[in-house]
Specification:
two-stranded antiparallel ribbon; 210 residues; 2 domains; six-stranded parallel beta sheet; 15% strand
Length: 210
């Protein structure tokens, strides 16, 4: 009989990203990061002038961070324990929005933190990629964990039978982001792993419809 399946995002779910990215920008790029509202594109400003960093330059900075600075990332509190506990009951894989060229470095990064998880890369909405993963594993039940509301919307549309948990473990971002649960695209919004783990286990075993 097939096992349950957990499909989880990485950045701000398993590992902190924005804070290490912010620190790197300030230390080496002369760029300040201040999150105002939920618009990441307006968070970066050149320190010398106060001008916004143009969108194309933001993408270049993000690429440089993931090319060279992933060692700065560190686990969200409780994430490693939760993934280890879930792996006793289910297959656990990571679906991360990075290019294929970053798949191996992401897998090594997670392994360095004690998580030997299979990594799937993706660009754009995650619904189609999640569908392919579910078809590959054919699990008895599946849950999806992500910090970005639009990905929950995509999964809800294409794979409505998959349970969906909106989790953002980064306090710098959590108060500002659109809530997928409020939008009706996630079954719950929980931003700490101590609370999320029992909810996930209940969903995996069909013990909760909340």
């Amino acid at each position: 009989m097939s096992r349950p399946l957990v499909i989880t995002d990485c950045d701000e779910v398993l590992l902190h990203m924005v804070v290490p990215f912010r620190d790197w920008l300030g230390e080496t790029q002369g760029v300040d990061f201040h999150m105002v509202g939920n618009d990441f594109a307006h968070a970066l400003r050149y320190r010398a002038t106060g001008d916004l960093v143009p969108g194309d330059e933001v993408w270049k900075l993000l690429k440089a961070f993931f090319d060279n600075e992933m060692h700065r990332q560190y686990p969200i509190t409780g994430a490693v324990h939760a993934m280890t506990a879930l792996a006793e009951h289910a297959d656990v894989v990571v679906l991360t929005n990075l290019g294929d060229n970053h798949r191996d470095s992401r897998a090594r990064q997670l392994l360095d933190h004690g998580l030997g998880l299979k990594v799937y890369t993706n660009l754009g909405p995650k619904g189609p990629a999640l569908q392919r993963i579910v078809e590959e594993f054919r699990p008895s039940r599946a849950v999806f964990i992500d910090d970005i509301a639009q990905h929950h919307g995509s999964v809800a549309e294409l794979a409505p039978d998959v349970s969906r948990l909106h989790l953002c473990g980064e306090p710098l971002l959590a108060p500002h982001i659109t809530c997928a649960h409020e939008a009706g695209h996630a079954h719950a919004r929980i931003d700490d792993w101590q609370t999320a783990l029992p909810w996930l286990l209940a969903r995996l075993y069909g013990e909760s419809d909340d």
